[in-house]
Design brief:
It is built from nine helices and nine strands. With 218 residues, it is α/β, with parallel strands linked by helices. The chain has a domain of 151 residues: P-loop containing nucleotide triphosphate hydrolases (Rossmann fold). The strands form two sheets. Strands 2-7-1-8-9 form a five-stranded parallel sheet, sandwiched between helices. The protein has a four-stranded mixed sheet with strand order 4-3-6-5. The longest helix is centred in the C-terminal third of the chain and has 16 residues. The structure holds guanosine-5'-monophosphate. The site of guanosine-5'-monophosphate has 15 residues, from strand 5, strand 6 and helix 5.
Length: 218
């Protein structure tokens, strides 16, 4: 039988999760994602490419890779995206390379993508995928969060509110749904989901050799 350190080493050998977080804008997804990344060293964020302009404070290569439309089209043609979609009036896509590298490295990858991206990833990589939808507690709260964020003009906010209903209509395509009324509670729910998904038998690649040792009395 292996000692404690051996067991820890074996357990570390697991498939990385692809955790998709989708929500209408303003449901608190960015805050949850930020906290999650802070708590988990073995987790990384997929940085999308987009054709939209940076908002105040957003950094190229951190929040998004901000690219011109021609460049984005070239990336599609070169099959550089795991998935891509048009959201509002702009294009968004998940660069393939960094995600594959992180998963190979045994890291979990978080994706802040919309329902179209979630659908495409379901077809491409369903084994590693965990899809979580974040809902706001009410329509009024969603609107007030968009206003207090003060990053977008009234016109953009009105557009986002109109789109939120369409985004919410896809809630049933997700494995889990969190209603973000209280941030701490939502965070705890998110932790629980990820902890359980990491425990799924098919993701614990170490189990069969462990059980072999166990039954052979090693
Ligand atoms: P925002 O412009 O507010 O940053 O993002 C707008 C929407 O685009 C959000 O719902 C966000 O989840 C989605 N989005 C961001 N990156 C991607 C991506 O790479 N692929 C897809 N399909 N959607 C994305």
């Amino acid at each position: 039988m292996s000692n404690k350190a051996d067991l820890q080493n074996m357990k570390a050998k697991r498939r990385g999760l692809m955790v998709v977080l989708s929500s209408p804008s303003g449901a608190g997804k960015s805050t949850l994602t930020r906290r999650l990344l802070k708590e988990n060293v073995n987790m990384t964020m997929s940085v999308s490419a987009t054709t939209r302009s940076p908002r105040t404070g957003e950094k190229d290569g951190v929040d998004y890779f901000f690219v011109e439309k021609d460049n984005f089209v070239d990336m599609i043609e070169n099959e550089e995206f795991l998935e891509h979609a048009k959201v509002f009036d702009n294009y968004y896509g998940t660069p393939r390379g960094p995600v594959e590298a992180a998963l190979m490295d045994g890291k979990d990858v978080i994706f802040d993508i919309d329902w179209q991206g979630a659908q495409q990833l379901t077809q491409a990589a369903s084994d590693d995928l965990v899809k979580i939808f974040i809902l706001p507690p009410s329509k009024r709260e969603l609107e007030s969060r968009l206003h207090s964020r003060a990053q977008d003009s009234d016109e953009v906010i009105a557009k986002r509110m109109a789109k939120s209903e369409a985004e919410i209509s896809h809630w049933a395509e997700y494995d889990y749904v969190i209603v973000n009324d209280d941030l701490d509670v939502a965070m705890e729910e998110l932790r629980t989901i990820i902890a359980s998904e990491r425990m799924a038998r098919r993701r614990q690649l170490w189990l069969s050799s462990f059980v072999k040792q166990l039954t052979q009395g090693g």
